[in-house]
Amino acid sequence: AFNFCAGPAALPEAVLQQAQADLVDWQRRGCSIMEMSHRGADFVAIAERAEQDLRDLLAIPDNYKVLFLQGGATQQFAQVPMNLLGGKASADYICTGVWSEKAIAEAKKFAQVNVAATDVANHFRAVPDVSTWQLDNHAAYLHYTPNETIHGVEFDFIPSVDVPLVADYSSSILSEPLDVSKFGLIYAGAQKNIGPAGIVVVIVREDLLGRYAAGMPTIMDYAVAAKNGSMYNTPPTYSWYLSGLVFQWLKAQGGLEAIAALNARKAAKLYGAIDASGFYANPVAIANRSRMNVPFTLADARLEATFLQEAEAQHLLNLAGHRSVGGMRASIYNAVPEAAVDALIDFMADFERRHG
Ligand code: PLP
């Protein structure tokens, strides 16, 4: 079967096989990977290797800390303003979809939020033109969502601003090389391109640490997490370990340049098939079409249930669009092989022939 779930998403087959063996008995130590102390030498080695592999993959500069935290990307919606306002009153946000909206709603509890640009009136089908952005000169940071998982809208550029740039990379991290030095902070929930649910990776420039907001719980303080190697309390050891296996797998695939070329090919094929048909459609501006999440509609919405049933019978799983927007969505993250995209395209053409 091929799994097109938006998250928790498909993991590489080789990673799952390795995890299966380690779950029972890790390196003949007589205990499961899940049963080891996070402070023991074995787990510390696993954790350090995972961090180093991630640093290698993204070429993370030395003046950035890598944190492995809990609470998902949703917790970061609060943790970012709590940590980065640093005495300032306001922060800039760019709104390109549902996840931006959620980040904005949470930040409003801590800051005066200036929505510098939004595509809401256009039903989130494009990244607003930079010339229309109304940035606030006094903002503590600018937050944006490089890839909107639900609407399938992806930035085709990294914003250039004078304040620290903060990005929710949950659904596109590790899909291509990234110049981390352009960011103040990057966060990404794991359950798409990193590993299983239960962990969120934060990459933060060191000079942004320690801007303590009064009353902030200790567990929310990035500086405390950094000082304790993300082990201020018990970390999600299994998710961390499995993320490490994904990083090793990515390196074995040839790193981010190789995976980016594959991702570009997969996306081009699928959008090409959609555009070539009069039956399927994708509404997103071409320059902003996501390489990871491809939403599409059928010419007759009454056929959606049949489409999903037939797809599942062909072992093409989880193609329903997000419940808030409907339609279809194929998430084609790193671990979804090109053969999955080919099988989906064949199925779509066949479905169109029979029902179109
Ligand atoms: N941000 C983006 C872009 C997402 O796609 C998601 C989840 O799908 C989230 C945030 C929320 O992540 P979590 O469920 O880990 O809190």
UniProtKB/TrEMBL annotation:
<dbReference type="GO" id="GO:0030170">
    <property type="term" value="F:pyridoxal phosphate binding"/>
</dbReference>
<dbReference type="InterPro" id="IPR015424">
    <property type="entry name" value="PyrdxlP-dep_Trfase"/>
</dbReference>
<keyword id="KW-0808">Transferase</keyword>
<feature type="binding site">
    <location>
        <begin position="73"/>
        <end position="74"/>
    </location>
    <ligand>
        <name>pyridoxal 5'-phosphate</name>
    </ligand>
</feature>
<dbReference type="InterPro" id="IPR022278">
    <property type="entry name" value="Pser_aminoTfrase"/>
</dbReference>
<keyword id="KW-0028">Amino-acid biosynthesis</keyword>
<keyword id="KW-0032">Aminotransferase</keyword>
<keyword id="KW-0718">Serine biosynthesis</keyword>
<feature type="binding site">
    <location>
        <position position="191"/>
    </location>
    <ligand>
        <name>pyridoxal 5'-phosphate</name>
    </ligand>
</feature>
<comment type="pathway">
    <text>Amino-acid biosynthesis; L-serine biosynthesis; L-serine from 3-phospho-D-glycerate: step 2/3.</text>
</comment>
<dbReference type="Pfam" id="PF00266">
    <property type="entry name" value="Aminotran_5"/>
</dbReference>
<keyword id="KW-0663">Pyridoxal phosphate</keyword>
<keyword id="KW-0963">Cytoplasm</keyword>
<dbReference type="GO" id="GO:0004648">
    <property type="term" value="F:O-phospho-L-serine:2-oxoglutarate aminotransferase activity"/>
</dbReference>
<comment type="function">
    <text>Catalyzes the reversible conversion of 3-phosphohydroxypyruvate to phosphoserine and of 3-hydroxy-2-oxo-4-phosphonooxybutanoate to phosphohydroxythreonine.</text>
</comment>
<dbReference type="GO" id="GO:0008615">
    <property type="term" value="P:pyridoxine biosynthetic process"/>
</dbReference>
<dbReference type="InterPro" id="IPR000192">
    <property type="entry name" value="Aminotrans_V_dom"/>
</dbReference>
<comment type="pathway">
    <text>Cofactor biosynthesis; pyridoxine 5'-phosphate biosynthesis; pyridoxine 5'-phosphate from D-erythrose 4-phosphate: step 3/5.</text>
</comment>
<comment type="similarity">
    <text>Belongs to the class-V pyridoxal-phosphate-dependent aminotransferase family. SerC subfamily.</text>
</comment>
<protein>
    <recommendedName>
        <fullName>Phosphoserine aminotransferase</fullName>
        <ecNumber>2.6.1.52</ecNumber>
    </recommendedName>
</protein>
<dbReference type="GO" id="GO:0006564">
    <property type="term" value="P:L-serine biosynthetic process"/>
</dbReference>
<feature type="modified residue" description="N6-(pyridoxal phosphate)lysine">
    <location>
        <position position="192"/>
    </location>
</feature>
<feature type="domain" description="Aminotransferase class V">
    <location>
        <begin position="2"/>
        <end position="344"/>
    </location>
</feature>
<dbReference type="InterPro" id="IPR015421">
    <property type="entry name" value="PyrdxlP-dep_Trfase_major"/>
</dbReference>
<keyword id="KW-0664">Pyridoxine biosynthesis</keyword>
<comment type="subunit">
    <text>Homodimer.</text>
</comment>
<feature type="binding site">
    <location>
        <position position="99"/>
    </location>
    <ligand>
        <name>pyridoxal 5'-phosphate</name>
    </ligand>
</feature>
<feature type="binding site">
    <location>
        <position position="168"/>
    </location>
    <ligand>
        <name>pyridoxal 5'-phosphate</name>
    </ligand>
</feature>
<dbReference type="GO" id="GO:0005737">
    <property type="term" value="C:cytoplasm"/>
</dbReference>
<feature type="binding site">
    <location>
        <position position="149"/>
    </location>
    <ligand>
        <name>pyridoxal 5'-phosphate</name>
    </ligand>
</feature>
<dbReference type="InterPro" id="IPR015422">
    <property type="entry name" value="PyrdxlP-dep_Trfase_small"/>
</dbReference>
<feature type="binding site">
    <location>
        <begin position="233"/>
        <end position="234"/>
    </location>
    <ligand>
        <name>pyridoxal 5'-phosphate</name>
    </ligand>
</feature>
<feature type="binding site">
    <location>
        <position position="39"/>
    </location>
    <ligand>
        <name>L-glutamate</name>
    </ligand>
</feature>
